[in-house]
Write a structure and sequence with these properties.
The chain has a four-stranded parallel β-sheet with strand order 3-2-5-6. A two-stranded antiparallel ribbon has the order 1-4. The chain is an alpha/beta fold. Belongs to the uracil-DNA glycosylase (UDG) superfamily. UNG family.
């Protein structure tokens, strides 16, 4: 596994790559990709960082695991490649956008345009084996991505963290809430959304209101 990660992140995270846990993680991921079908494609494992440089990050959305179906995962949480059927959570994200900011439901589920505007679409685990959800959890990825969240919290100000669902909400312990903005809601998955924990959170418009108040460009969602 090549650590093909944007130089701005490399600089911030340079201490991590030589740590024992990361060496073991790289070894595990290499073996998995050599012997099984895994996602996302190897050259997209670090896509979230390559679309969104450290100093350009304005918003952080935290997911859990990449999609584990064929051709879905593209290295950005909740996002899928162009032309791929939208997974249920992404459908509910787009439905909330429709009601929150009157955005037409998009044809493509690819969220690269968000990332290019400063939205870090960060999965806690960056790889997965095909049709085996959670198969690469607890192998070191969470240590790495927790370090990323803490690094952003320590070295930046006024970042907006969108924490959707119980798993993401636990990450609040890594965030200095005095200098950053944290918006929480239920997860956009059907189970949570259909119980009333997702729809109506208005996170997209609230996020843009905060950005404007801080003199930053709003996100074109």
């Amino acid at each position: 596994m090549e650590i093909a990660i944007n130089d701005t992140w490399k600089e911030q995270l340079k201490g991590e790559f030589s740590k024992e846990y990361f060496k073991e993680l790289v070894s595990f991921v290499k073996e998995e990709y050599a012997n099984h079908v895994c996602y996302p494609p190897e050259n997209e494992i670090f896509a979230a960082f390559n679309y969104c440089a450290f100093n350009d990050t304005k918003v952080v959305i935290i997911g859990q695991d990449p999609y584990h179906g064929p051709n879905q995962a593209n290295g950005l949480c909740f996002s899928v490649h162009d032309g791929i059927k939208h997974p249920p959570s992404l459908i509910n994200i787009f439905k909330e956008l429709e009601t929150d900011i009157n955005k037409d439901y998009p044809e493509s589920g690819n969220l690269e345009s968000w990332a290019e505007q400063g939205v870090l679409l960060l999965n806690a685990t960056l790889t997965v084996r095909e049709h085996d959800a959670g198969s690469h959890q607890k192998k070191g990825w969470e240590v790495f991505t927790d370090t990323i969240i803490k690094t952003i919290s320590d070295n930046r100000e006024d970042i907006i963290f969108l924490l959707w669902g119980g798993f993401a909400k636990k990450k609040i312990k890594l965030i200095d809430t005095k200098k950053h903005h944290v918006l929480t809601s239920g997860h956009p998955s059907p189970l949570s959304a259909n119980r009333g924990y997702w729809f109506g959170n208005r996170h997209f418009s609230i996020c843009n209101e905060i950005l404007l108040k801080n003199g930053k460009k709003p996100i074109i969602w």
